[in-house]
């Protein structure tokens, strides 16, 4: 895990990058990587805030550690089109273009970027 700034971390898992964004009230993990590593345990060594999970898309190299979480944010199109129903144990919380996630003093905006997959999304952290 590499600290990028006071409240942002990069986690490399092979060829996949995952990010931890920390607000005043919550933390958000973006993607869980390809290897199924114990990413939740690693993240919980950095913060004790309630931890949310967001997947940028549903390919296996971005969701391998999802089963360490009871729920996750993802665009519904990817959950359906990538065949994740029945493979992931957590509850899907659908997100779409224009949605916002407030971490407490750190507002994130979801931007739909269909192309790689139908439900691919980006996260805009405008203040950071």
Keywords:
single chain; mainly beta; 3 helices; 128 residues
**Could you state the order of secondary-structure elements as H and E?**
EEEEHEHEHEEEE
Sheet of most strands: 5 strands, mixed
Radius of gyration: 13 Å
> Strand percentage, roughly?
35-45%
User: What is the number of helices?
Assistant: 3
Order of neighbouring strands in the sheet with most strands: 1-2-3-4-5
Distance between the termini: 19 Å
Rounded mean pLDDT is 92
Low-confidence stretches: none
Helix percentage range: 10-25%
Count the E strands: 10
Structural class: mainly beta
User: What gross morphology would you assign?
Assistant: globular
Layout of helices and strands:
Blueprint lengths: L1 E4 L2 E6 L2 E7 L4 E4 L8 H6 L6 E4 L5 H4 L7 E5 H6 L9 E5 L4 E3 L4 E6 L8 E4 L4
Parallel strand pairs: 4-5, 6-7
Antiparallel strand pairs: 1-2, 2-3, 3-4, 8-9, 9-10
Overview of the molecule:
By secondary structure, the protein is mostly beta strands. 12% of the residues lie in helices and 38% in strands. It is built from 3 helices and 10 strands. It has helices at 39-44, 60-63, 76-81, and strands at residues 2-5, 8-13, 16-22, 27-30, 51-54, 71-75, 91-95, 100-102, 107-112, 121-124. The strands form 3 sheets. A 5-stranded mixed sheet has the order 1-2-3-4-5, with no helix packed on it. Strands 8-9-10 form a 3-stranded antiparallel sheet, with no helix packed on it. Strands 6-7 form a two-stranded parallel sheet. Strand 4 (27-30), helix 1 (39-44) and strand 5 (51-54) form a beta-alpha-beta unit. It is globular. The relative contact order is 0.19. The mean pLDDT is 92.
């Amino acid at each position: 895990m590499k600290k990028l700034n006071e409240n942002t971390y990069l986690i490399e898992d092979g060829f996949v990058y995952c990010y931890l964004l920390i607000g005043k009230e919550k933390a958000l993990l973006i993607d869980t990587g390809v290897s199924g590593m114990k990413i939740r345990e690693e993240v919980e060594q950095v913060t004790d805030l309630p931890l949310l999970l967001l997947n940028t898309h549903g390919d296996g190299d971005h969701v391998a550690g999802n089963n360490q979480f009871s729920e996750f944010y993802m665009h519904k199109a990817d959950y359906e089109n990538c065949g994740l129903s029945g493979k992931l144990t957590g509850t899907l919380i659908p997100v779409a273009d224009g949605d916002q996630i407030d971490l407490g003093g750190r507002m994130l905006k979801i931007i739909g970027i269909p192309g790689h997959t139908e439900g691919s999304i980006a996260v805009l952290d405008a203040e950071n």
